[in-house]
Amino acid sequence: MSYRSLTILALAIACGSPDYSVAPVQPTGGTARAYGLWTPSARETCTKAQHDRYSTVGPDGKLYPTWHPPTDPESGCTFGHEHGRDPRGSDLYRQVGDIPLGYANEQLEIFDPQNPRNEDHFGHKFEWENDVQMNAGSSLANRFFDIRCDILVKFHQGTHSRDAFTNNLHELVYHIKCNDGTEMHTTFMSAVGTPGEFETSCDRRRIRVGPATPANSPNGGGVRIIPDVDCVMRHMLVSGTRESNFNSALHESWETSNSIRTENGHTLAHFNPYFQVDAPSRYYDPAAPNVTARPVDVCYMTGPSGERARGGLCQQSTNNGALTGVTWDDPRSRFNGVARFVDINSNIIDNEKGPAVWYTDPFGHDGRTKPFPGSIKQWIAPIAGVLNPEGPGLGHRRNYGGLGVRAPN
Amino acid sequence: MLRLSRVAVAAVLSSALATPLLAQRAASAATSLTQRRLWGAFSLGNATASLSCSVCRDFSDRSVAAGLTVGVRHTSRLYLGLQLDGWYRFSGGENDRVYSIGPMAQYYPAKRPLFVRLGLGWAGYLATDEDESLASRSIAAQIGLGYDFVISQSYLLTPFASYMRGAGGRLTLNGEAATMPAGVELLQYGLQITLR
């Protein structure tokens, strides 16, 4: 399994992927910082070795973790967490191969050793869809054009901890290939919104929480919209026989705005997927320990006027109130981050003169035609897109929960 | 003076001899022109038009089409001309137009009345709505069939059908060139009135 990616890479080249392909890499024998982060708890039945064999060699020759199912198909043991949709079903997998998790983080540590950004293992989430019907941008264009794209994305979106309250740097791997020529294959640290703060989901108030890690995190476009105690109480604790509105209480949206730019500031590509989570396992509460509170605990709360959480996720998590003391990391809690989708949105390319291959800093900027320490190779189709396809939401009807999956996830 | 006189005599003799020759040529030319016969035609009918490209939807629209041709009769079986066709559709604020222009040849394999028409020229598609415009221009080839009915000494009534296809042309959306080439298709049928 460890060198499976080499076979796939070789196959990709042999099958004649005409433009973008991942070149085979000689392993150095070293491991990335992201490798080996996970250790089983008493609730998981897989061993660390069973987990760590899901690995791949990255472009730097180091060993990285990669996608794995929530349960090991060979032994049936449980990992307790999931990484979304199996990327091997994507038509882009032939070109892309196994995706190394944490590669951009690793390059950041080379690029700026004083300011690393280390993300946990749980939060890496895959989503993909083949032959997605896209919006061509106007009614006239949509009347004439049928744009279809293969899309494969991997985003680190941890919704079990306080990390995203302050930290806005999250690894994003974004692959898209469309029949109108739009195509890009990118990996970088996406700066989502402002470091040190987020916006509340109910009323979009800006909450300043504290310093981000790293301290020099750049300000990104977009925003992290995260539920806070006011929103949760307002929509989860209800009076009478009303049912709680868990979506209004807890829906979380990380709205990214990403640009791949050259060293002279020209924007080669811009894309802005929004990553949404329906039932995260935490919300912001300044009065809670570590400012982190748990939605499942609200299932057991009583409001000042007798309000209670009713129906839906609380009903499922507590078995209609029969189960007491279900904790946030219990597999029976439905507040586990497995219900997710991503709005693909727009894809704009302005790279007519080429080349297709650029080497950028770990943030996707300062693009040059030759690699430099800590740089990441990006591939942008040498076109100036006119139709700029806009994508729909992916993953609405998928639930990535499995046996033993629980927060942290 | 003698030299001048000789030149003068030569000039007079030359013009005297040339005049009948020039007259003969003029008469021949007039006769040839009459025999060549200019001709013209106007057509009206129906056509389905579509835009084809790698990401174009597979649909076509039907609407009115008209054409104008002027030309010369090269032989009794071969007529040459310059043909201009147009197609127009309006629906709910959207305007679609197709145009084509180019030389054509109309050939009668058995002298009369069935003919085959071939053409090669320039064709374009233009679609607009309130906010945007889509345009395509390309080289296009045409093939058609027709059957002449003589309705008078100078007029023919001809039902016809023709197919035109363009390819490899420039496609623009709001003036900006798209990455893929495109071409227009026009399948037309109707009636043509020819004056010969």
* Portion of residues within helices of chain A: 10-25%
CATH topology value of the largest domain in chain B: Porin
- SSE string of chain B, helices as H and strands as E: HEEEEEEEEEE
Overall shape of chain A: it is: globular
**Average predicted local confidence, pLDDT of chain B:** 85
Task: Outline the biggest β-sheet of chain B.
Answer: 8 strands, antiparallel, barrel
Ranges of chain A where pLDDT stays below 50 over 5 or more residues in a row are 1-18
* Alpha carbon gyration radius of chain A: 21 Å
The number of E-state strands of chain B comes to: 10
CATH architecture of the largest domain in chain B: Beta Barrel
Strand content of chain B: over 45%
Helix/strand order of chain A, N-terminal first: HHEEHHEHEHEEEEEHEHEEEEEHEHEEEE
Describe this structure in words.
The complex is a heterodimer of chains A (409) and B (196). Chain A has one domain (4-394). The longest helix of chain A has 11 residues, at 4-14. Chain A has 409 residues and is α+β, with helices and mostly antiparallel strands. In chain A, strands 7, 8, 9, 11, 12, 13, 17 and 20 form an 8-stranded mixed beta sheet that branches. A 6-stranded antiparallel beta sheet of chain A has the order 3-4-5-6-19-18, covered by helices on one side. Chain A has a two-stranded antiparallel sheet with strand order 1-2. The two termini of chain A are 23 Å apart. Chain A has helices at residues 4-14, 48-52, 93-96, 103-111, 139-144, 163-166, 229-236, 246-250, 295-298, 312-317; strands at 55-57, 63-65, 124-133, 148-156, 169-178, 183-191, 197-200, 206-208, 221-226, 237-238, 252-261, 267-271, 274-277, 283-284, 292-293, 308-309, 340-349, 357-360, 376-380, 390-394. Chain B is an alpha+beta fold and 196 residues long. Chain B has 2 domains: 1-36; 37-195, Porin, CATH 2.40.160. Helix content of chain B is 18%, strand content 63%. Chain B is built from 1 helix and 10 strands; from the N terminus they run H-E-E-E-E-E-E-E-E-E-E. Chain B has one helix at residues 2-36; strands at 38-53, 61-73, 78-91, 94-107, 114-128, 133-147, 149-150, 155-173, 176-177, 182-195. In chain B, strand 4 (94-107) and strand 5 (114-128) form a beta hairpin. The longest helix of chain B has 35 residues, at 2-36. The radius of gyration of chain B is 25 Å and the shape is elongated.
